[in-house]
Specification:
This protein has 16 helices and two strands. The chain has about 375 residues and is mainly alpha-helical. A two-stranded antiparallel ribbon has the order 1-2. Helix 6 runs antiparallel to helix 12 and helix 12 packs antiparallel against helix 13. The two termini are about 40 Å apart.
Length: about 375
């Protein structure tokens, strides 16, 4: 947290940067305007640190700063001294997944036994709603085949780790959220390639066996290594526990920046339309996920959990798969947009739910008060 006075100073700086950005655009000085755009988002991110409500969006705003930098100066993020930066995407995803594994334990999978109904509904909703939504939007959008395939790919990916954080903020069932994320992640090597073959096979060539192996090496092996690390060295390396979230955030930002730089030309042509399609995909994930749980008369907290699990995808995995397909600049674009966007919509939805105590939670509080009286 920063002081209110410091926050106001950075809000003023952000406002000045907006004015300078507009002025430089009018002067057609695009190199300078790009830097003012970056400074605007960085200033806004720092200013947000003083607000409990906006603090969670600080990292997302930094990603926007990185995206602006990539759009105005793509050469910085394509290669350094002849080395293609896109080669770092898979190792970064593996590092992020290892960090996810270190924060997990076998108890996270026990929810299958404790709440089988919620897990089954959540997993089925994840692998039915989002893939079909992606397929429908891809066919309705009239995008080039590889761009459309990217929309399907993000829909066929498992739920993302960010959904666990949002479930906590939304006063949802965090234990159920963690279990659904874990199960969909473990099933991804077998389900995601098959869904892609069925739904996007006419758009791009899909090698099911290769995609299975790509997911295993990007997710399953690193998470397994993280689980073993957590089991053997839990609590003995506190520095790593503190470092991994920071490393993960840096990794996600860097991946999105590389994809943006690689796909700059496509983004400039269809960017607004793709953002709209991704927003619809994400929003309907929340909506249909929530009502799929309601349909089976699940508690409100569980309905919120399923909504967030369905709506928030593992954009990092989708990016890695696009890279392994050799189509990062096209198939990877939807994932690059989906990642930051879902953090904004997820934070907004979680904040809205946070102030509304679930009915069963309200009843539990009344019983507790009666006992205390």
């Amino acid at each position: 947290m920063i002081s209110r006075r410091t926050s106001i100073a950075f809000y003023i700086l952000a406002s000045v940067c907006v004015l300078l950005y507009i002025f430089s655009l009018l002067q057609k000085n695009h190199d300078i305007s790009g830097w003012f755009g970056v400074l605007f988002f960085v200033s806004l991110s720092i200013a947000f640190r003083s607000s409990k409500f906006l603090k969670g969006l600080s990292f997302t705003v930094i990603i926007f700063a990185a995206v602006v930098m990539a759009l105005y100066h793509p050469d910085y993020f394509q290669q350094w001294s002849g080395y293609k930066l896109s080669n770092l995407i898979v190792p970064l995803i593996q590092l992020i997944m290892f960090g996810m594994g270190t924060s997990m334990s076998l108890q996270d999978f026990a929810g299958v036994v404790k709440t089988p109904k919620g897990v089954v509904i959540g997993v089925l909703s994840q692998f039915i709603i989002m893939p079909l939504m992606g397929f429908t939007l891809a066919n309705a959008s009239n995008f080039p085949p590889e761009i459309a395939a990217g929309v399907v790919l993000i829909g066929c990916s498992p739920s993302g780790l960010a959904s666990n954080v949002m479930s906590y903020l939304a006063k949802a069932n965090v234990a159920l959220s963690i279990t659904i994320t874990a199960i969909t992640t473990l099933l991804a090597p077998f389900i995601t390639p098959v869904l892609m073959k069925l739904l996007a096979g006419t758009l791009v060539e899909i090698d099911v066996a290769k995609m299975m192996w790509d997911i295993i090496k990007m997710i399953i092996i690193p998470i397994g290594a993280g689980l073993v690390f957590n089991r053997l060295l839990s609590g003995r390396s506190k520095w790593l526990d503190k470092a991994m979230p920071i490393v993960s955030m840096f990794g996600i930002a860097f991946i999105i920046t590389i994809i943006t730089a690689a796909g700059r030309e496509s983004l400039l042509k269809i960017g607004p339309a793709l953002i709209l399609v991704v927003l619809i995909h994400n929003s309907f994930g929340y909506l249909l996920g929530y009502w799929s749980a309601k349909l089976f008369k699940m508690p409100e907290r569980d309905c919120r959990t399923v909504a967030l699990e369905v709506g928030m995808q593992n954009a990092g995995l989708a990016s890695g798969l696009a890279k392994e397909m050799g189509k990062l600049a096209t198939v990877g674009l939807a994932a690059a947009i989906f990642g930051p966007l879902m953090n904004i919509t997820g934070s907004a939805l979680a904040s809205w739910w946070h102030s509304r105590i679930p009915k069963e939670g309200f009843e539990d509080q009344k019983k507790k008060l009666k006992v205390e009286i």
